[in-house]
Amino acid sequence: PASKLPALGTTIFTQMSALAQQHNAINLSQGFPDFDGPRYLQQRLAYHVSQGANQYAPMTGAAALREAIADKTAALYGYLPDSNEEITVTAGATEALYAAITALVRPGDEVICFDPSYDSYAPAVTLAGGVMKRQTLQPPAFRVDWQEFHQLLSPRTRLVILNTPHNPSATVWQQSDFAALWQAIADKEIYVLSDEVYEHICFTDEGHHSVLAQPQLRERAIAVSSFGKTFHMTGWKVGYCVAPPALSAEIRKVHQYLTFSVNTPAQLALADMLRAEPQHYRELPAFYRARRDCLVQALSNSRFNILPCTGTYFLLADYSAISDLDDVSFCRWLTEKVGVAAIPLSVFCAESFPHRLIRLCFAKQETTLIAAAERLCQI
Ligand code: PMP
Ligand code: GLN
Description:
Blueprint lengths: L11 H11 L3 E2 L11 H12 L12 H15 L9 E4 L1 H13 L5 E6 L5 H7 L3 E6 L9 H7 L4 E7 L11 H11 L5 E5 L25 E6 H4 L8 E4 L2 H14 L5 H13 L2 H4 L1 H15 L6 E2 L7 E5 L8 H12 L1 E2 L1 E2 L12 E5 L4 H12 L2
Helix pairs in contact: 2-10, 3-10, 4-5, 4-9, 12-14
Bound molecules: 4'-deoxy-4'-aminopyridoxal-5'-phosphate (PMP) and glutamine.
């Protein structure tokens, strides 16, 4: 049959993890921890399974989890969403993003995103009949040029997708970025999809700025998050979105036929975890700062130029001093010959991105990071 996504292949994450396995390389490519999540969370999952919480959860999510998310949002961002009307639990952030895009984007609508951008946004927009409009951000700061942004706006603009802390650049949005976004769209009917899956992995003094802390913007915004990153459990695939009632109602119409509902005992366990151990996510910046600093330190004698990292569990390294290969070829070579797998940046960009940058995941034990860095210091 004629493909609806003819240009799309297997994701870079699947490709690089497979190549890493094939060559027995240390895998700093796909973003997932090589250590386990909290014991308490695991015990609560076993508990709820043993108590028979094994049938369908409510379509919108288990009430206990939605309430815990509402309270966490109030504590962190000063806004208490209505847990019945404004919070929907989804199968990872991926489903929330897909459901939001499907609910909002009509054929011919334009969607603005900032490249390098996470790979799941564009296919969802294309399947909905929308058209991507991309603004490429430049290293090392990857800041949005708001003059340039204005030129992308048109009467057909429907949605802006942002991601902070940002995968893959490891930069974060500042309050001034949200102010500039609001100024640009205030008088237009444009919605905002804010991917905040790394909300608890932010290293700046100010901390993470959520769209939910922006009183005007949040009236038009869908904030998306995921427990996979926060609790070191990427395989659990439980995420959620927070949006005003009318927007949530539309997203739920998609969600109820995409998955209907999400794994019941995992939701109940996550609700217990959020209530019992809020220090887990409060301590996450320090936890990941130590790993980031370990990798940066271990690479200090290498020929890589390390870029600043203010959020996420990814570090960018410039290999201009090492090789003239393009980034995709360099990552293949690195995996096959040096024994370390990384992600090339250009795959997150629709337009040419002629920089020599790779992404290294530091959600790893220190022994893994040091072993990888030893190899990277040899080249
Ligand atoms: N958005 C970004 C920016 C991500 O990095 C990821 C996953 N790594 C996701 C969304 C998807 O999250 P989930 O695994 O919860 O579907
Ligand atoms: N988001 C993860 C990353 O950036 C990968 C998720 C996936 O494999 N789809 O590495």
